[in-house]
User: What shape does this take?
Amino acid sequence: MTFKKIMLFLHRWIGLLSGLVVFIVSITGAIYVFEKELFALFHPSYVTVAAQKGEKTLPLSILKANAQHVTDHPINIIRIPATTGQQEAYIFEALKRRPKNDIVGAFVNKEIIYWDRIFVDPYSGRVLGKIDVETNFFWIVRQIHQFLYLRRDVGSTIVGSSVLLFIITLLSGLFLWWPKNRKVAVKRLKINFSTKWKRLNYDLHQVLGFYAFLVALVIAATGLVWSFKWWETSIYWLMDGKRPNMQIEAPKAPNNTMSEASAASLDLIWSDVVKKHTVHQGVFINLLHEVSQANATIYNKGNTGWSASDTHAYDLRNGKHYFKRLQSDKTLGMKWRNSNYDIHVGKIAGRTGMWIAFVASLICASLPVTGFCIWYGRKFKKKKMRS
Assistant: This one.
C-alpha cells in the first residue's frame, strides 16, 4: 500500500467516524461566534440603554441591590460593558454550580444549581430584564458545542477526541489535495458550478476544504484547550517551560472595623477600578463571598496582538486592593491562555476575524456532509457495477 493510499484510508474512515460530531460542533460554533450580537438583536430592551448627556451612572452597590430584589440567590458576578461605543446595561448574575464530585444525571445542565442573569440600567437603576441562563438558547448552543449537552466529563472527551480526529483529516486532506503541477493546481482552486452533481460535490469538498484549512486548524487547536488538560499543559510547556500558577490567594483577616462585605466596600472597589482604568473594553467582577474576595478583570485594547487584560484582587470586607496581575507582567503562556477564546472565535482580529471564523465553521460543517456523499456515491457505484 502506497503512502497516498494510507492517507486516503485514514482520511476516509476517520472522517466517517468523527463526521457527525464535527458537523454538530461546527454548526453550533458558527452560531455562537455572534452570540452577544444576536442576543442584543433579539433582546434590545434588555441590553441597550439611553443616557442623557453628562448623566452619571449610579453607585454599583445600588445597582446590585436593585438586581438582588429580583432573584432569591446571592449575586456573585458583575459584568460591566466597555466605556466606548453604544451604552449597554450592566449585568448581574447569581450562579452556583455543583461540586465536580457531586454531579448528577447524564446531561450538562445538571451541573448548575441556579444561574440568574439580570440586566440593569446603570443610569436609572431600573431592572430591564432577567433570564434563566440554563434555559437560554445560546447557553444550550454552547453546551451542545462543548459537550453535546452531555455531562462535562463525558461530552468533552467525545468532542475533544472527534476534534483531534478532525485535525488528522485536515492534514491528510491537504496532502491528498496537493497538486502535482501548476495546471492541476488551477483546477483545484476553483469550483465548477456547471458540472454534474457528483463532480460539484467533490469540488465543494476539496476546494472549500483547502481555503478553510488554516482557519479550521486554528479553531480546532484552540478548541482542544477546553477538552483536554494535557493539551493546555503542553502549550504552556512549549511557551513557558511549565504551567503557571494562576490562583489568587484569599485576603488575610483585616485589621479594620468591617468584618464582612458591604455596599461601601463594593463602591470602594469599583471606584479604584475606574481610577486605574478610566477607559476599558469591559470589566468582569467575581465576588467570592465565602473567602471575602473580589477579583476584577479589566479588558483593554492591546497593541501586542494578544487580548489584553489586567486583574486586581480586593478584600470584600473593606474594599482594599491587595493583589494585581497586569498584562505586562504575564508570561507568554498566560497571554496565550487569556487570548485563546478570542483566537477561537476570531475576535482577536475584530469583526472581520469573527466573520472569517463564522464562514470557516460553516465550511467545516459541510466537509463531513460532502465527504460522506463522495464515499456513499462511490460505494453505491461499486455495488451497481457488481450487480
Q: What stands out?
A: The two ends are 28 Å apart (CA to CA). The chain has twelve helices and eight strands. Residues 256 and 330 are 32 Å apart (CA to CA).
